Amino acid sequence: MRYVAYVLLPAEFVLVVCLVAGVRVPGGVVLGAEVAVGALLVVEGVGYLRLRRSGLSRRGALERLVPEPVLRLAGHELRLLASLVRWVARRPHGLGPGVRAFPHARDQAALMYGFAFVCVVETVGMSYLLADWPVAHAVVLVLDAYTVLFVLGLHAASATRPHLLAEDALRVRQAAHVDVRVPLERIAAVRHESLFSHEKADGELNLAVGSQTSLTVELTEPVLAPRLLGPPRPVRVVRLHADDARALVRALGEARELRGEALTRARTAPCPSPDPPSSA
């Protein structure tokens, strides 16, 4: 069914483009295409239910039915939409007991709002230009409206998904597509370092906000950094930005000291005394 989807869905897209462009398509072709897409969705739904009944998780069942790149892109879009809801409700993602949040979206706010404003102006302009073509006007209006939501969702994801510092790890995040957990025991050095140019290099992860990073974290062992498309890659240097970078450096230093003291106490704790032998 996956190979059928590879053929059928692009064909459906071409058919929609033809209809929007005013190309006359026989009614039988349109009806056949819609029936085929509907049948594909029904078969995929039945396959999903069977996989779930066989014991697979929701994620596992979806991975069997949907290509991995498509699944990642769909998950990214859903996280953006969920971030909009969290942004309005002022509910950051991932907070819990003993977890400190360090926001990083402040320096990109003006740029993202400006980009969203330009998209709104473009939406109004295209609505005026396509007023005499109702079908094209409706399609372009939907696409433009979603573009505005997408831009706001990117900023909302950054605002509601701050960097998190727990007792045992630093969670580094950017928008809705990067979420890297860095154990504190793997951190070799942390320094406040403002950089505005970042060349791509193996083993380095640069999470710039407003084209800048303000913190550099060097690791003793690599961690896996996810990518929106493609497998994760190992990195030993993480550069990130925080609204209050110096506060994050201090908090990381304190957390590493506390973590080291806890590990030392655990290693040097005396062994429990054996029970005395029972008397006969």
Class by helix and strand content? alpha+beta
Mean model confidence by pLDDT = 85
Strand residue content: 15-25%
User: Count of DSSP helices?
Assistant: 7
Count of distinct strands: 8
Q: How are strands sequenced across the largest beta sheet?
A: 1-2-3-4
Poorly predicted sequence stretches spanning 5 or more consecutive residues: none
Termini Cα gap:
74 Å
Query: What is the succession of H and E elements?
Result: HHHHEHHEEEEEEEH
Helix fraction, binned, reads: 40-55%
Cα gyration radius (Å): 26 Å
**Molecular shape:** globular
Largest sheet, strands/sense/barrel: 4 strands, antiparallel
What number of structural domains do the residues give? 3
Walk me through the structure.
The chain is an alpha+beta fold and 280 residues long. It has three domains: 2-66; 80-160; 163-264, no CATH class. The chain is built from seven helices and eight strands. The strands form two sheets. A four-stranded antiparallel beta sheet has the order 1-2-3-4, covered by helices on one side. The radius of gyration is 26 Å and the shape is globular.
Question: What attributes does this structure have?
Answer:
280 residues, globular, 7 helices, four-stranded mixed beta sheet, alpha+beta, four-stranded antiparallel beta sheet
